Amino acid sequence: MIEGQEMNMALGLPIYITGFNDGKTRKCYPYKLKDVYKLHSYMEFINQDDFVSNLKSEDSLVCIKFLLEESFPETLEDEGENEILRYLDGSNFKEIIHDIEIVNGIGSDSRVTTESMDNGEKESIDWDTSVSCIMTYTSNTMEDISNLTMRQFTNIIEAVGKKITWNYKLDTITLTEDPS
Question: pTM (2 decimals)?
Fold first, then answer.
């Protein structure tokens, strides 16, 4: 379970997660944008609703191990490989996986959106446009962007989108008041 760690999430810092059967709190590290494809690949093979079916599937089990090892590297160093799996079962598995999704800014609404300048509705923008906007409106390089977490990336896109929308509205008001 995650509570009161919004600032750490915004800064891309590890988040403390509880809910393991041994009662320990563990640091969950967010994936960087350059590695988020791994996270999405792992999640495709994991059935969050049925822990037992994951144990029966070799592909699912491998993805769970990689996901846990990459999300909780300090646990791997302290307790050894595969030890973290001992502290998961059907009662906490779904919550732990959900917490990993929250730390990484993914889930049911993981598409990057920005407000449309025409009607104020939210609309999706593609990855190329998102990266180009960040490079254009900030001093971030491609390498800087690839080292952002998904949450940081989304927050920057939202801020840039608000700036673009605000400037568009100001320009429209200016043209309306003084068309010369």
Answer: 0.77
